[in-house]
Amino acid sequence: MMKQAIPLHNKEACIALLGVRDEPTDGVEDYCRYLAGALEPRGFALELVRVPWRELGWRAALRKLDEQSRAWRGRRVFLQYTALAWSRRGFPLGVLRVLKRLKKNGVRCAIVFHDSGPYPGERLRDRIRRQVQIQVMRRAARQTELAILNVPAENMSWLPATGHRAVFIPVGANLPAPEQAWTQEKRESGGAPAVAVFCVSEGKPERAEVAHLVETARYAAERAGAFRLVVLGRNAEHAGPMIQEGLRGTSVEVVIHGLLSGEEVVRQLGMCSVLLFLRGGISTRRGSAVAGISCGLPVIASACEETGGPILEAGVVLLPPGAWTEFGPALARVLSDAAYRSDLAARSRRAQELFFSWQAIAARYVEVLEKSRASR
Q: pTM for this structure?
């Protein structure tokens, strides 16, 4: 029997507090909107509110937040943390000022860490920024009632000793009904299988990523035969010409898409047989990798210090860190071995149902909130 919807006036009102909007797409805002939709039938009304510090300046933005949050007394506010959402250059001291205002007005503060750790880099500025980020994250975790992590706590070395207040909830795919991809035809006319690459890194990592992709595709095409390489999402159009040039003269047909609607992303991934994840190590916070899992695809990726949790339950071909030469053989095997590919796809579908669907994520939030409410 279907559950009856809970009337709006009976729902617990919560706030998702965001900083600066990311461009051209904002994964954190999308996360909050999908989460709000999944929480609504479970008795929670999650409202999205931004702190416009970039437009107004910090002093005016905090004054506005002070006025708003007086009406939030007793409510739960989930501050959404990435360093660049709260600072132009990744020194997010403003987060602590925001938390101070909220607590002063009697708000119950939680924090969702979308950045699982500080930024890398070896310049003096990078090292200073890293220390600032670590201190801000530690202090923010201590000053909130609840810290929600998108990778398992044991993979986050900066986390303070607040185990009873830190919980792990993986991210979901910011896609509408990714399960629709499970039954989609995997081959277009011509019969060539398709390999997906969803999003390409920007800046310095782009060239190395493209080089690894070209090497992987060339190797797989020589061993497994012709296939279509479908590159879509963020930075795909910029990287596209380099990929096409690198694969010129091979049996790989390169198809480049830019930013697409969520529905079209699901359709494109649904036509593919496997997803290559080349943007560093895979983990439960990497939305573009989770998108492949949610659409029921095998995923080929390398491990890193964050790899763990339900990623290990999904249909992921996990390679050693930095073992770029192993991507080609892994892709060739997935394309050539139908039974192996089918088993991996089934594992991804199961992981989506148990861990990565918004229904599963919302259920985990509700469980955590009810435990927190009972302990007051």
A: 0.92
Sheet holding 274-281, edge to edge: 252-256, 227-232, 194-198, 274-281, 299-302, 316-319
In angstroms, the CA 7 to CA 313 distance is 37
The tens digit of pLDDT for each residue in 285-304 reads: 999 999 999 999 999 999 99
Neighbours of 362 (CB within 10 A): 23
The H or E element spanning position 364 is helix 358-374
Question: Alpha-carbon Rg of the chain, whole angstroms?
Answer: 22
Cα 234 to Cα 172: distance, rounded to the nearest angstrom: 18
Under 8 Å between Cβ of 151 and 286: no
Domains present along the chain, CATH in parentheses: 8-172+358-374 (3.40.50.2000), 178-356 (3.40.50.2000)
Asked whether 171 and 192 are in contact (CB, 8 A), the reply is no
Tell me the backbone φ, ψ of residue 50, rounded to 5 degrees: -105, 150
**Roughly what angle, to the nearest 10 degrees, separates helices 58-69 and 94-104?**
30
With vertex at residue 178, the alpha carbon angle to CA 177 and CA 184, rounded to the nearest 5 degrees, is 110
